[in-house]
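Batch manifest, entry 17 of 40.
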Amino acid sequence: MQTIWLSGAEWFAVLRIGLGLWWLESWRHKDKKTWFTGGGITWAAGIADKHRWSAVRTGFDRWVKPRPRPMAYLVAYAELALGLGLVVGFLTPIALVCGAVLNLIYLVLMIHDWAEQGQNLMMALVSLTGLLAMSWQCWSLDGALGLFR
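Output type: structure tokens
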């Protein structure tokens, strides 16, 4: 693959690192005090209660709503772990798949809020592209350690 300035593998590494920075920004901009006391889950519960798909309401009520603090920590630290993993390229294929799944969960929950949909769709697309292009081949701990060849 011929490209300008960087090789194809290096461009995909840039894409992977950019996605990691995007996840780190998701972590950074959260109001941690409100989020970790369940504020984020309370906000999401209001959205789930009005959701047009009963499966989303039922799933949220069964799994998330009864555990607001643990779920708040799970979401926030998943975003942090995804960001760090993608930036340094550690366990990259796992991070890309988990990130795409998290974006799809956000997409389904926020189906009514079109402002959020662009971000989630774009992040899921970048995750898929990074996975199919094996973006861990360059500038990554996975590459240095010989993982996922």
